[in-house]
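Hi R.,

Here's the chain you asked about this morning:
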Amino acid sequence: MFERILVPLDGSPRAEVILPLIARVLQREDSEILLLRVVDIPAAIGRVSLAEIRKQEREEAQKYVHDVARRFSGTGAKVHGRVAEGAPAEAILQTAETEGATLIAMSTHGRTGLARWTLGSVAEKVARASNIPLLLVRSFRRSSKGDLEPIVPQEFPFRRMLFAVDGSETSMAALGPAVKFAQLYGSDLLVLHVETPYVPPTPVLPGMDVVFPHMVPSATPSTEDEVTAKAAHRFEQAGLKATRLTTVGEPASEILDLSVNRAIDLIALGTHGRSGLARWALGSIAERVLRSGEVPILLVRASR
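And the predicted structure, written out as tokens:
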């Protein structure tokens, strides 16, 4: 998973926040880092050629990735720079494929919980279509006063990881990468299963309004559930501490709430193995966590 890591950068300090945060990953002896800067300028606008501007932008991009790579020259990390042209998401995905990347790690620039990231469409397209694990880290965090502030560029410990599972092979897709990530950081695991039972519709008599099904609120969380057993056993086999928890409610909300209440440092999710830019089968769950989560997220698509 950590052999060849692709790190897309957009030239901003916020994008570079990902580098010190995952310093332990980047400095592994067997890891090779590919810094990618994408130049997205059309060849022309109407009859006006932009060839000279594209050339200048490419030269600046090459200098930029070279300068960033040079900062790591004294750390022992093997770092290389790449420049690609085209739409950012497509260029990131194409580079990951042609370079044989085993992990894509990128930061996002979102300032508010429910709003899209500034990098929004790029991050979401990469998340939906990437065939390799994707680590997304927001460059802002919530302060003790409740405001959002820029993350201080320093190594992040990733002490506590939440692994969400629903009993499907799709949700188990992130198990292998989650194990490797947790082993590297010595993380404790919370294996979470959120049940979503529904009450049958209330019979409707003539003249009555339709009453739709609704979810049963959580009563007593459980630590004994076969759905969480397999993942927890795998983590324990790897020498990791795993706690099991089953709750009842809306999955995305439970994942997001627990990530705050349990001081989670990383959420690991498996997504459906669909092609192209199609949405996940987890759809609203994964996208809500992706857009609203305030902690780093490790996404892994299931094999098709």
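The chain is about 30% helix and 25% strand.

Let me know if you need anything else.
M.
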